[in-house]
Design goal:
Length: 116
């Protein structure tokens, strides 16, 4: 089973909660965390031994968090309009908001020896 860390960047973020449910329903083990500093998120990813860290990107600040994390671990994100900037920053996979099926498919394709 694949383990992913899904980080809620905004309090009570419904989209992140829906994505967590979809991933769990798709057979992915989700470790859910509220936003912290980039160092805290990276440390949690290491401690939890996850394959990737997921973010729902809505603001420039969220994009910066994704870019900083991408240098330390595999990051995937959902975003509208930020795809190019996120990919240029090293984010491995970018999905449109509301594309939980695409995220589940991508996560399910990760293997245990996937590059971190």
């Amino acid at each position: 089973m694949i383990r992913l860390l899904l980080v809620e960047l905004e309090p009570d973020d419904v989209e992140t909660q829906v994505l967590a449910r979809a991933l769990r329903d798709g057979g992915v083990e989700v470790v859910y965390a509220e936003a912290g500093t980039v160092d805290e998120i990276a440390s949690a990813a290491e401690q939890e031994d996850v394959r990737a860290v997921g973010l729902v990107v809505r603001t420039g600040e969220h994009r910066l968090i994704g870019a900083e994390l991408a240098g330390r671990t595999v990051v995937f994100a959902t975003a509208d309009g930020d795809e190019h900037a996120l990919r240029a920053a090293g984010v491995k996979a970018v999905f449109r908001h509301g594309n939980a099926e695409g995220v589940v498919s991508w996560a399910s394709a990760l293997t245990s020896d996937h590059e971190r």
